[in-house]
Amino acid sequence: ALTPRQAIQDRGIDLKLNHEATGIQPAEKRVIVQSAAGTSEETYDYLLIATGASPHTGGIPVSAKERVFFIKNLDDAAALQTFIDEAKPRNCAVIGGGYIALEMLEALQVRGLSTHLVHRRSHLARTFEPEISEIITQKAARMGIKLNLNTAVEAVAEKNGQAAVQTPAGDLFFDCAVLALGVKPNTGILKNTSIKLGVKEAVQVNRYMQTSAHNIYAAGDCAETTNLITGKPAHVALALKANKEGSIAGTNICGGREQFPGTLGTAILKFFDLGIARTGLTKDEAKENGFEPLQFKISSHSKAGYYPGGGLLTSILTVDQRDGRLLGAQLAGPLDGVKRIDVYATALANRMTLEQLYDLDLAYAPPFSPLYDPVILAARVGKKLLRS
Amino acid sequence: ALTPRQAIQDRGIDLKLNHEATGIQPAEKRVIVQSAAGTSEETYDYLLIATGASPHTGGIPVSAKERVFFIKNLDDAAALQTFIDEAKPRNCAVIGGGYIALEMLEALQVRGLSTHLVHRRSHLARTFEPEISEIITQKAARMGIKLNLNTAVEAVAEKNGQAAVQTPAGDLFFDCAVLALGVKPNTGILKNTSIKLGVKEAVQVNRYMQTSAHNIYAAGDCAETTNLITGKPAHVALALKANKEGSIAGTNICGGREQFPGTLGTAILKFFDLGIARTGLTKDEAKENGFEPLQFKISSHSKAGYYPGGGLLTSILTVDQRDGRLLGAQLAGPLDGVKRIDVYATALANRMTLEQLYDLDLAYAPPFSPLYDPVILAARVGKKLLRS
Asked: B63 in helix, strand or coil?
């Protein structure tokens, strides 16, 4: 989004690439920096910690470095693409089961590789309910992806010019492997400072993005946030949160007073021609947080039933059965049908009940929606369930 | 949705087709009915007026009946299709400029007719702001539709086997014409009763769909409703309102207590590959209703800019500059981008401000949205404008 030249010339930033901050001394307002020129110290009036997060290995020893890839940034993707172009692997394993794993499965499969998923659980995309996970699993199988579920990986080693994925049932051999086991905040340099860490060792911040240390802010994937429904701290490494937080931290450092209220964990994903989306709490999370969840599922057309180009949309809603308040929603269906998760995210931000959802004046015309948009239909079904 | 056989056999309804209610006597709880068998009287415990609305002629005398069509129901559409198949017209005029006029322009043009719009204003789809109207006009021209704007129609007469559309500038000749000048509630039989009529002579109802007369309800296109933002009575002939009202009236007649709170006039339309959508007030409506509207426009990608298949989405927001409250939103852009009008409709139902809109946790992934969804981007732009 910003080249080094633009940063320096257009924005007047004193950019130091290939300099690594290796220590922070909040009392002295000082940062220790390593570079090719050696160790130096930088002082600051305000400090913003924006160190991001890195893929982790889930404790799996990886020795086949040349044929094992982590996907965090463009350089990582380019390295994998180069490997595919030059080494011409016939097959690849994706180890993991989250958003990045699913996106990599699709990317590899459409590049013509025989693509295998190796995942220690039976449940893909585990921020989703099991029924949505099942839809994803079926789509993966239908697209020809080989599924090794409930398969723990003990190590990935180089053997005979292949990546040997070691499991309790024996080794699985692939020309390459992608590890997509989630990320951890890059907060190692904060561990011996007064700056407090929280969930998954992300930096604790308040709504103004201030850490526990004077004039030190944090933003993005390295920073903790608040779940808007439970009020509890959470670590959510998603782009919109990171970007907004950076903007808010910068504004506040410059004398503004903006807030980041928190997250619903809203997420959306393309997996071949299947769209999936989520916002708010799962049923289990609702239960753990003292709600009395009622969950229900509806299947409805994404457009008018007779209109070409639509498909079936599965909606799973979780509500508090005491007052009908919406707590979470998940969707799976046609790619152009699942962005309506945003209506649920907006409803959650306003603590809406099913009654209020049903009353919404949502847009209808056959090329866009059935007469009763799936949101309104779900609310109608839920209202009846609550009464019974 | 329901055949006569289903109504009678499955639901036990005493269905009387080809019977016309010609009078209502609320004091006597009686309806006067005309049929082939003559005049009869029916008594009732509860009466539901669900007479709908009919296309009107806008005071234009129409004598070329055989080649002039109104479009209200499936039979009307079938009659026009039959005419096209049998008389093989080469060209057609659409007279009007609203949703039905636009849909008919597309339907006729894709059937290969040379299609002409004749409209007395310069502004198409006048529930939309002029800038959206301009986008529609440009799309119509690009699709080869001939535009006769600012052209009042004085009559449509049969001349030499054609429909002569008479205008102050002379006659325009077409093989057929569609009149799409809006609808009027079918409330003629209520005019000499105690049942109160309101806007456009639609039946006045309260939230329970009760008219001013004891045990008489009304629902659908014949019934007035309330604008949720202004609180004023309105006549909105849209399908979702009609359907919900019918359900609510039926529930209440049977002893329930459901309410229809009102409408935002949310609407969405496909016009070739252009989607347009609206909700809430226009700037002029906001001004007329005592708000202090600020209106602004943004243009943004509907998907990530680098992702294939997206397009530019125009968003026009109207807010109250005193408190930043959203009052209305309109969109024009790719077909799969404009259903996000529902986020605005949900925001309006919750009286959200731009600050709150900006804080929404909406779904992002490149196949679905830019990082800053157009809704969030619009809120960010609007927040800055309000501050300046």
From this structure: coil
Mean pLDDT computed over every residue of chain B: 96
- Inter-chain CB proximity A345 and B361 less than 8 Å: yes
Q: What is the pLDDT of residue A2?
A: 87
**A240–B339 C-beta distance less than 8 A:** no
Structural contact between residues B225 and B249, judged by C-beta atoms closer than 8 angstroms? no
Q: How many Cβ contacts (< 8 angstroms) between chains A and B?
A: 142
Per-residue pLDDT, B64: 79
Tens digits of residue pLDDT in B98-147: 999 999 999 999 999 999 999 999 999 999 999 999 999 999 999 999 99
B119 CA to centre of own chain:
17
DSSP B349: H
Shortest distance, CA B354 to any CA of chain A (angstroms): 13
Distance from CA of B372 to the nearest CA of A (A): 7
Q: Which of A227, A260, A339, A377 to mutate to test the interface with B (most CBs of B within 10 A)?
A: A339
pLDDT band at B58 (very low <50, low <70, confident <90, very high): confident
The pLDDT tens digits of the residues spanning A245-287 come to 999 999 999 999 999 999 999 999 999 999 999 999 999 999 9
Chain B interface test: which of A270, A342, A376 (most B C-beta within 10 Å): A342
Tokens of B348: 């309006």
CB contact under 8 A, A361 and B265: yes
Chain A residue with minimal CA distance to B270? A367
A363 and B275 within 8 Å at the Cβ level: the answer is: no
Going by C-beta distance under 8 Å and a sequence separation of 6 or more, which residues neighbour residue B284? none
B261 neighbors B228 (Cβ within 8 angstroms): yes
> Which residues, including other chains, have CB under 8 Å from residue A93's CB and lie 6 or more apart?
A116, A117, A118, A163, A165, A172, A174, A176, A177, A178
Rounded to the nearest integer, the mean pLDDT of chain A is 96
- Amino acid identity of residue B200, one-letter, is K
- Tell me what pLDDT residue B351 has: 98
The predicted model scores a pTM of: 0.97
**Which residues in chain A have Cβ-Cβ distances shorter than 8 Å to B275?**
368
Instruction: Using an 8 Å CB-CB cutoff, list chain A residues near B239.
Output: 364, 371
Q: Given an 8 Å threshold on Cβ–Cβ distance, is B342 in contact with A270?
A: no
Measured on CA atoms in the order B358, B359, B363, B366, is the torsion positive or negative?
A: positive
Cβ pair A266:B350 closer than 8 A: no
| Three-state secondary structure call for residue A24 | strand
Task: Find the mean pLDDT for residues B259-286.
Answer: 98
What per-residue confidence (pLDDT) applies to A94? 98
Tens-digit pLDDT profile for residues A299-330: 999 999 999 999 999 999 999 999 999 999 99
DSSP letter assigned to residue A227: B
Cα distances (Å, whole numbers) of residue B79 to B3, B75, B259: 20, 6, 38
Tell me whether residues A350 and B346 touch, CB distance under 8 A. yes
